[in-house]
Amino acid sequence: MSAQAAPASGQPGLADVLARSDVWRGDALAQAPLPGVPTGFGELDTELPGGGWPRGGLVELLPERRGIGEMALLMPALALISAEELAWVVCVAPPLPPYAPAWAAAGVSLSRLLVTRAAGGDAAWACARALDADGVGALVAWLPAADATTLRRLQLLAEKSRTLIFLFRPAAAAQESSPAPLRIALAASRAAAGRLSLNLLKRRGGARAMPLELDLARPAPLPSVSHVVAGTAPTAAPARSLSQPAAA
Fold it and tell me: Measured between alpha carbons, how far is 239 from 222 in angstroms, rounded to an integer?
């Protein structure tokens, strides 16, 4: 039977199954349900389903240590998101306050940046609130102690959302299972300063045998992404309430 032909029983054929975003050939990247948000690094875009950072799923980032350029990796996409009139960038539980001059120099609109210092269980709750809010284009969260239940909950919320979601966890978490469809271990490059080594631990598609090295100082120009997020911006009160625990 041809892969293009549907079985006489009325069940989907092989071509129909392979067209699904949650099914892929072992030697190829999966079809993404939504176009990816360009990362600013063309060589990384070609390695990701959808041609960029995925929406509707967790992106788990596992740096070997803090301050190796992990935020520079995200800045091109965050700049695109914040440039959209209705898109907020929400940071939950950053280990250090975001350095505003550096974010602004990278193109991030500070007027579209919300930060909450919630910790522990409140940080996971703040993430869930952000994913429920209209107009949130990107969520960046530091959840070092997140357990499997928390990750599964956030992944389910992500699947209902168009939000770009980055979760920072310790490098040791690479040994744990995770529902995140994209997991990347980050390390400082040994080849040259200003470069970052990315080990794609998990993605929807064939594995990459060797780490990918990026020059963080040379991001590519990015197009507009006016289609990234739909909805209206959260009002001031809900935005401020992200740092407050849920009522009992």
Answer: 28
**β-sheet bridge partners, residue 215:** 195
Report the sign of the C-alpha dihedral through residues 176, 213, 77, 160, in that order.
Answer: negative
Q: Please, which residues bridge with residue 91 across strands?
A: 115, 140
| CA-CA-CA-CA dihedral for 170, 62, 144, 114, to nearest 10 | 140
- pTM of the predicted protein model: 0.78
Q: What is the maximum alpha-carbon separation in the chain?
A: 63
- Say which CATH topology domain 35-243 has: Rossmann fold (3.40.50)
76-119 pLDDT tens trace: 999 999 987 568 999 999 999 999 999 999 999 999 999 999 88
Cβ-defined contacts of 143-146 (< 8 Å, 24+) = 143/92, 143/93, 143/167, 143/168, 143/169, 144/168, 144/169, 144/170, 145/120
**Per-residue pLDDT band at 233 (split at 50, 70, 90):** very low
**Average model confidence (pLDDT) for the chain?**
80
CB 214 within 8 A of CB 75: no
pLDDT at 224: 53
Output b/e per residue, 22-53; b: 16+ Cβ within 10 A. Answer: eebeeeebbbbeeebbbbbbeebbebbbbbbb
Residue 28 has pLDDT above 90, yes or no: no
User: Cα-flanking dihedrals φ and ψ of residue 175, to 5°?
Assistant: -80, -5
DSSP classification of residue 32: P
Domain ranges in the chain?
Answer: 35-243
